[in-house]
Amino acid sequence: MDLGIKDRVAVVTGGARGIGRAIALEFAREGAKVGLLDIFDEGMASTAAEIEALGGTALGLHCDVGESEQVAATFQKFSAELGPVTILVNSAAVLDNVSKIEIMDQRRWERDLRVNLTGVFNCIRAALPTMQQENWGRIVSISSVAGVLGGFGQAGYSATKSGLLGLAKTVALEQGRYNITSNVVYPGIIATEMFQFMRDDMKDRIRKRIVFRKEGEPQDVAWAVVFLCSEKARYITGVALDLSAGLTLFTF
Ligand SMILES: NC(=O)c1ccc[n+]([C@@H]2O[C@H](COP(=O)([O-])OP(=O)(O)OC[C@H]3O[C@@H](n4cnc5c(N)ncnc54)[C@H](O)[C@@H]3O)[C@@H](O)[C@H]2O)c1
User: Fold this and answer.
1) How far is the CA of 197 from the centre of ligand 1 (A)?
2) Which of 13, 23, 40, 165 to mutate for ligand 1's pocket (most ligand atoms within 8 Å of CB)?
3) What percent of the chain is predicted at pLDDT more than 90?
4) Would 74 be classed as within a structural domain?
5) Is residue 29 included in any domain, yes or no?
6) 186 is annotated as an active-site residue
């Protein structure tokens, strides 16, 4: 199936590793030009090299999503070097603030908000001008089951991931007139570095709640996200797609 995004410019935040990296590579396989936006330079360089080895085009730019001026300048650079940005995937996030709310460090709570929520707001605002000019756009933000179910010890992370649902739906309402869609996917457990560091007994407990009895691969998220960014998904907007394979389903 031709997804109809050849030569479009897709910016992937957090594209240096994990899920963002898999998404960036999938865009390249579909013939899109890829802008990588991350603070992890080494990872960006290796993702870009892999894209170029596939015969694709990639540009990695160091940028902190939480810094609005930096973000605006970075998107201008992507458009100047690659062409107008019409696809944005927000994958960058911090996932390491784990503690109960009464002892949660205020600065870490604020960092969660700055990166995971304000960061997405900054990137959407920076990408909209070129999407509006082109009268075509696709925005997908990566939320989490923690944004839907809450997460024990994850007040900051889960609050920001819930926030993405309201943000994405609002953008869908406001930007439909420009043929810009805005959606969220919420993965459950995906085998990235974060999961490798989890204790084995915890991994086993979680696997029992997944209908396939195993964690997902970054590629599983990438296929869904790239489809939502395609021409074929032109009538899908304001949606929150569950990619948890059962973690949100009730069972006895
Ligand atoms: N891995 C999972 O099981 C899982 C489950 C549900 C949701 N998610 C979500 O999927 C997305 C990707 O997760 P992952 O597992 O690939 O994470 P990861 O930690 O492997 O990758 C995150 C990337 O974001 C970048 N980043 C962090 N702070 C940044 C900043 N301020 N500015 C720019 N870039 C920054 C990091 O450098 C890194 O490259 C995240 O939004 C995460 O919340 C992951």
Assistant:
1) 14
2) 40
3) 94
4) yes
5) yes
6) no
Amino acid type, 134: E
For the residues of 155-211, what is the DSSP string, one character each? HHHHHHHHHHHHHHHHHHHHHGGGTEEEEEEEES-B-SHHHHTS-HHHHHHHHHTST
Number of domains into which the chain is organized? 1
State percent of the chain over pLDDT 70.
100
Within a domain: 26? yes
CATH of residue 137: 3.40.50.720
Domain-embedded: residue 1: no
**What's the predicted TM-score (pTM) here?**
0.98
What is the per-residue pLDDT for 198? Answer: 81
Q: Say which amino acid occupies 79.
A: S
Distance 14 CA to ligand 1 centre (A): 6
Count the neighbouring beta carbons within 10 Å of the beta carbon of residue 169: 17
Predicted confidence (pLDDT) per residue in 86-112, tens digit: 999 999 999 998 999 999 999 999 999
Range of the domain at 93: 9-243
